[in-house]
Design brief:
The chain is α+β, with helices and mostly antiparallel strands. It has two helices and eight strands; from the N terminus they run αββββαββββ. The chain has one domain. The relative contact order is 0.20.
């Protein structure tokens, strides 16, 4: 019986630690340059952007997974890149920034480093100018 309990407890502990708020299992945590050509298979990755961290926020019945990226490039340059490489997704201007909305509840938003956006345990570097947030809502609200 003890072996059966260990069989279930360890995987549950690993799942809880990987899915908890602030979890970031990836090797690119806190500064590695992103080499993937796309983020989530949905948005073009901004050249030279660095992954800061990822978080998973649990809700009922929806939850959100998001990842923050930073770049030293000015926000106008990042916005221009996504206006050109938006992949046909819905584009919304947001002050100096931009928001792309893709099917299946994917959102990419561009923010000045000193602006308002979800924060995590890894801050942008002193020389960074722009933060990019890629988020994905999982689950759907229950109709009321």
């Amino acid at each position: 019986m003890a072996g059966v309990r260990a069989f279930f407890v360890l995987p549950l502990a690993l799942i809880a630690s990987a899915c908890g708020r602030g979890a970031d299992p990836g090797p690119a945590r806190g500064g590695a340059v992103v080499t993937d050509p796309s983020w989530g298979g949905v948005f073009a990755a901004f050249p030279g952007a660095r992954r800061l961290c990822s978080q998973h926020v649990t809700g009922d019945p929806m939850h959100i997974e998001w990842t923050a990226y930073a770049t030293d490039r000015p926000i106008a340059e990042v916005v221009a890149f996504y206006e050109k490489n938006g992949g046909g997704h819905a584009v919304e201007r947001d002050g100096a920034g931009l928001r792309l909305r893709a099917p299946a509840d994917w959102v990419l938003s561009i923010h000045p480093k000193d602006g308002t956006y979800p924060r995590c345990e890894v801050a942008p570097a002193a020389g960074d100018a722009t933060v990019i947030i890629v988020s994905h809502a999982v689950g759907r609200p229950i109709p009321g």
